[in-house]
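Retro notes (design track)

What went well: tokenization of the new backbones is finally stable.
What didn't: we kept losing track of which sequence belonged to which structure.
Fix going forward: every design gets posted as structure first, then sequence, in one message. First example under the new rule, 497 residues:
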């Protein structure tokens, strides 16, 4: 079983990394590594989450088969089988144990061929502390396919023996002197993306791995792990494809789910984790970019459709469009800068380390449902209170109702595996209310964004004023819809009772 932390490093910081106080007194070992990754023409191994490679280490070839990765934040945990073989021309399947061969059942082994290679220089340092040992590796080189290549510059901290928390201790010490960032993808995953076999896509909410007879603490831990996995899975996509606004949206969803999970600590008699405060600060820092993305991608096209309709038949000044585009680009770059900072990496590491701590195991399945019911009841009561007299609620109170609906939705999603299919109808109805309230809130925020923009000319001021007026009108026209949805939700059967 391989347990490691993987972090990315900018090439310009390699020398700084080598001089780190934690490493500069340890004699490093350097050696070049050439790895050939194998799969079928249809990438059957990749589809099963398997990586198969032959790696040349000094004058020998080492064959490695790795099963599907389980990644939580920066920590990767995956089964692997490694054996020395005679050459690097083709894998030797006879050298694999039965449990590894079972993973390949149904795949025609004769059709397995090279699909890409990695070639890099590895520098390693052995670090020990009491009964724990870890290897810090700096990898620098390239991934090659037939017609493309990509740089490798990353740090792997692999546990050799002892407590996995030591990996986080080492990573945090390294981060104090060198800017590192989270990289949840293996070299194999990046290779498959490079050769077109896999596509980087936004990752929506991940269902917590909740099983029967788990303790309350284990369920809480699983909720946080699922949110952290979603956060780390969307990070590379946003950093590399910031123009795809869905990555930022899913990042923010993951952050909100982490925050919701952190607040559950009080119901377990535990203090709210220390990392919740920097988490909230990060959420606030990313809000402007998401608000402007929603404006550009959803609200502005709707406004333009209204302006171009026969009833209005009027366009919008190009200067206004340029101002909106430039502002959106600026705040998106600001969000990118925030996620590149060591403070964000430290936050992910702190959460990951915290999740390794032993969760309390004093309660079993029935008590888990009791715990879930108490939390869901409390969230439901807050939503009912927020929605009282819904038709007469102003924009501010509807915003509070939206927040209450969102918090209940995250909790309901997290506990849904405990209750099965009977949770689906309620969650769907709750989602409809949240979406409709979100529609109205987005237009209120849109007006606020427009009011903050500089009106350097009368033409700009007039154009922005028109946009604001249309937003106010469109929100008013749908003001009755959330009230109708709320009435249906209020009559729904509560799946946890």
């Amino acid at each position: 079983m391989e347990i490691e932390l993987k972090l990315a490093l900018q090439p310009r910081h390699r020398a700084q990394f080598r001089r780190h106080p934690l490493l500069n007194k340890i004699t490093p070992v350097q050696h070049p590594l050439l790895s050939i990754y194998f799969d079928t023409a249809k990438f059957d191994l990749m589809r099963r989450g398997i990586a198969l490679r032959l790696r040349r280490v000094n004058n020998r070839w080492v064959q490695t088969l790795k099963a599907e990765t389980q990644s939580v934040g920066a920590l990767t945990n995956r089964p692997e089988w490694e054996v020395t073989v005679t050459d690097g021309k083709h894998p030797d399947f006879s050298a694999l144990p039965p449990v590894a061969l079972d993973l390949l059942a149904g795949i025609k082994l004769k059709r397995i061929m090279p699909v890409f290679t990695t070639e890099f220089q590895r520098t390693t340092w052995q670090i020990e502390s009491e009964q724990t040992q870890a290897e810090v590796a700096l990898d620098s080189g390239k991934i090659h396919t037939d017609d493309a290549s990509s740089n490798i510059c990353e740090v792997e901290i692999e546990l050799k023996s002892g407590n996995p928390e030591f990996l986080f201790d080492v990573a945090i010490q390294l981060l104090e002197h060198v800017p590192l960032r989270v990289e949840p993808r293996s070299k194999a995953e990046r290779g498959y993306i490079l050769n077109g076999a896999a596509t980087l896509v936004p990752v929506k909410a991940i269902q917590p791995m909740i099983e029967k007879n788990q303790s309350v603490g284990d369920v809480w831990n699983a909720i946080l792990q699922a949110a952290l996995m979603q956060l780390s899975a969307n990070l590379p996509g946003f950093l590399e494809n910031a123009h795809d606004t869905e990555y930022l949206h899913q990042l923010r969803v993951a952050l909100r789910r982490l925050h919701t999970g952190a607040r559950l600590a009080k119901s377990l008699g535990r203090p709210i984790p220390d990392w919740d405060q920097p988490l909230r600060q990060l959420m606030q820092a990313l809000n402007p970019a998401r608000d402007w993305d929603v404006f550009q991608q959803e609200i502005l096209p709707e406004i333009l459709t209204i302006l171009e309709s026969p009833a209005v038949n009027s366009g919008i000044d190009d200067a206004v469009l340029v101002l909106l585009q430039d502002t959106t680009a600026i705040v998106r770059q600001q969000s990118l800068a925030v996620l590149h900072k060591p403070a964000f990496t430290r936050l992910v590491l702190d959460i990951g380390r915290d999740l390794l701590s032993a969760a309390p195991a004093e309660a079993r399945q029935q008590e888990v449902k009791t715990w879930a019911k108490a939390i869901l009841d409390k969230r439901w009561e807050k939503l009912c209170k927020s929605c009282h007299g819904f038709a007469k609620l102003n924009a501010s109170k509807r915003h509070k109702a939206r927040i209450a609906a969102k918090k209940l939705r995250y909790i309901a999603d997290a506990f849904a595996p405990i209750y099965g299919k009977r949770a689906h109808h309620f969650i769907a109805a709750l989602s409809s209310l949240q979406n409709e309230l979100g529609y109205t809130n987005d237009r209120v925020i849109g007006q606020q964004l427009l009011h903050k923009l500089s009106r350097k000319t009368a033409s700009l001021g007039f154009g922005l004023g028109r946009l604001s007026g249309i937003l106010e009108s469109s929100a008013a026209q749908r003001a009755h819809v959330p009230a109708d949805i709320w009435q249906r939700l209020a009559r729904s059967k509560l799946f946890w009772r």
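Added context from the reviewer: Confidence is low (pLDDT under 50) at residues 361-365.
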